[in-house]
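REQUEST FORM: STRUCTURE PREDICTION
Request ID: SP-0412
Submitted by: Lab K.M.
Chain count: 1
Length (residues): 378
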Amino acid sequence: MDLGFLRPLFGETGDYVSVYLDTDRAHENALTAIDLRWQAARQRLAEAGASQASLDAAAAVAGAPGEARGYAVFARAGAVAFTGALDAPPRREIARLAPLPHLMPLLAQRRPPIPHLRVSATRVGGEILAIGGSGRGWRDWVSGQQWPVHKTSVGGWSQPRFQRSVEETWDENAKTLAAEVGAVAGRIGARHVIVSGDVRARSLLLGHLATPLRESATVLDEEVSADSQAMTEAADRALSEWAGRRTRERFDDWRTKLAHGLAVEGLVPTMAAFRDGQVSDLFLADDPTSTASVWIGPGGGDIAASSEELLERDVPAPVADRADAALVRAVVHTDAELHFLPVDLVEGGDPAACGGIAHPRDGVCATLRFSLEAVDGP
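STATUS: Completed
RESULT:
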């Protein structure tokens, strides 16, 4: 998860209003219920000391887009800094005034989508549904905007031409479809494809796809269109599996590097690595019940377990805030990547099968760009 687009939120610290509200409108009297929830949240924020201007700005949470079942608003100094739409009610309704915006629940619940293709193959060609790309990124997705969807039909002939046999014509159609799949994948940056359709046609298509797409392909054993509900559900399952595999691969890399001084485990060592600009990948357990706090300063890398540590580094006026909020800022500031750990890596596992580690201490760990020992020398 690349969070560089959030950098403007951290130009200033202090007096950030963060609100997460259930805005599901599927129930009777939903609008009244949403307004009551916001009024209760507003009262809590006012009691915490939020300014009238910021409360007025945060009121945007009650005007969430109709399709958003949950909504998050972050406001400061009388202006909305960022909003996020959720496809389900927030796991916890939050009304918080703090030095930093509380972004972690939004990041955890609104995971970034993966550009991909959904292809329905027929013996006369097929159709391609391209999801994502066109320069649109996760910022648009988390803000509630839908990624671009482009549908392309390929082929249109079914009879043998000249001296070709039926099988040769089918194969030519599959080659044409495969070429278009490769071209569309290149345009939107997709590395994954879900294939449905005629059994023979999809087999021929897979045979003509470039190796990376063929190896990543998931086959839905149904003759359905590319934009069908069955394809949507198959894509959701496949993308979840792909994302999980990628996180596990990066976590396996963390285990290997830990033995060579190029990774750290636990909150305190991870914060020290952030202060030194070492972190390339942060792995974090998704724990909505966490209340862990740390000390921060004005800089993105100003994060420590005590105010004394920051004062020793000449960081002015340290203040306390949530650990997860501070870690998000550190990730954004250092251009690191954030990965949420799969549940089984957090809740347990066989240490022998996990390189001697069942799960990282404190539910947090990081791989490093470099070792300070290597920089300092022997």
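NOTES: The chain has 13 helices and 16 strands.
Reviewed by: T.R.
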